[in-house]
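Protein fold
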Amino acid sequence: MILIGTMNLTRTRERGEFYCPTCGATQSYRLRARRPFLTLYLIPTVPIGAPELFVQCDQCKSSWDETVLQMDQATHQMVQEEKFRDEAIRSAVLMTLVDDDISEPEIQTLLGLSEVLFDRPTDREELGRLCSIARHAGIQANNYVLTVSKRWTMQQRLLALQGMFLAATASEDDVSKKKLATLHSMRDLLELTDKEFEAAIDDALNYDVV
């Protein structure tokens, strides 16, 4: 019986140093090529696809597209900052949707904090799109923040918390227990101490976003 199958072979093509976005520092890397082969009796014989190139950090083992080698530290940090702003706005939007509804004061607050707090102006159309996506996909504030905040710096965590607080309390006379509970849970999700959490909330009161 002829035994035929496939396997991926990975080889290192070159080594060097690059700025690793995961480590946040310059690290050594390997440029690797992964390619599928047809095997005969478990022996690779014929390549059956084009090689897939990727960069692997020797320190954290994260893998990146080879274009990561063309970006310096300043460019990486700028990209990460832009990504954080988008995620922070989404977090604030999700906070307003904890009660499955969004009021006009909350819309005005989201528009204001996107410009004042996050320096990333948005409009009603985009807010509507974000709300629609969140509702359709059933995205919850807690789950979203738990996922995206892992790569946030401490400063970014505090800023995002302030945005969520302002969004949750936009309708001052009608802050539900569910919103307050969700907001309070952010202390543990963002790995903040009681002092850090309370200080961030106090500072948020100084912002005029409406």
